[in-house]
Design goal:
The protein has 13 helices and no strands. With 276 residues, the protein is mainly alpha-helical. It has one domain.
Length: 276
């Protein structure tokens, strides 16, 4: 739904739809879980705000990067680029946390990276900035989503003890609230026309917002139960769903070369999961 709005609202406009129209649904989710469980909403603290704020900002930029990739390549291929996220988590762990990179994990990274380049570079196409730009957008999106996932899990863990689904939903509400505020201010100042158009297209925008919030609710539940790397690696099933959506909704044809590349990306990240 966001991809279909990009031509009308632009990349930033389509990005803000997920947050602006998703925020009310997140509030509804929080009301449901607190009423059903009888639990109170956890109070925010400095550590929670730091992690959640960093994750929110990273997700905004990552979503914009992913939509930019979709404008230049097919929906499913752009999604595959973004799935390098799990590989980048392993690299970040080595650089930032000093986590050991075994030969198995290194091999998995090589396989997934080879898949990305197989998708990115078309036969007989010169290796220049224009040809590689969609791949760079997608890879940047994956890196930012990796930062966002770590931030959101850190935010959930930073809350006081409580039911896991209440902490997860509380973090979702705060993240969407921060994202709505940031993009609302930005678009009011610099992209008022696109903001007004998003209000005019409220039916499509509302559906995109609901689906984004509903999906995020389950991502955050996963983050509250196990590591972000485990959750996002399992989320690679999205590549297969994206392929089905791409063919049925957008009538986009994916070449054998691109399918092979997507297969390598999935295989590489699956190998990382086996190495955990």
């Amino acid at each position: 739904m966001q991809n279909s709005l990009t031509s009308t609202l632009g990349t930033i406009g389509a990005t803000q739809v997920r947050f602006l129209y998703g925020f009310p649904f997140a509030l509804a989710f929080l009301a449901i879980v607190t009423v059903a469980s009888g639990a109170a909403v956890p109070s925010a603290n400095e550590r929670f705000l730091m992690f959640t704020g960093a994750g929110a900002v990273a997700q905004i930029i990552g979503t914009a990067m992913l939509l930019a990739a979709m404008r230049e390549r097919s929906f499913s291929v752009a999604t595959a680029f973004g799935k390098t996220e799990a590989v980048q988590v392993a690299v970040f762990g080595l650089i930032i946390l000093g986590e050991q990179l075994t030969w198995w994990r290194a091999g998995a990274i090589v396989v997934a990276t080879a898949g990305v380049f197989l998708i990115a570079v078309k036969p007989r196409e010169p290796w220049n900035a224009a040809a590689l730009r969609p791949a760079l957008f997608g890879i940047a999106s994956g890196g930012l989503y990796a930062i966002a996932a770590v931030g959101f899990r850190g935010g959930i863990l930073a809350l006081d003890d409580g039911l896991y689904f209440v902490r997860a939903t509380t973090t979702l509400v705060w993240s969407l609230g921060i994202q709505t505020l940031i993009l609302g201010i930005w678009m009011s100042l610099f992209m008022r026309a696109a903001l007004m158009k998003s209000f005019a297209l409220w039916r499509q925008s509302l559906f995109a917002g609901f689906m984004g919030a509903f999906a995020s609710q389950f991502w955050f539940l996963g983050f509250s139960l196990t590591s972000a790397a485990n959750v996002r690696t399992l989320g690679l099933i999205e590549v297969l769903f994206a392929q089905a959506v791409s063919r049925r909704v957008f009538s986009e044809q994916v070449s054998t070369r691109e399918l092979a590349g997507m297969g390598l990306v999935v295989a590489g990240v699956a190998a990382l999961l086996l190495a955990v």
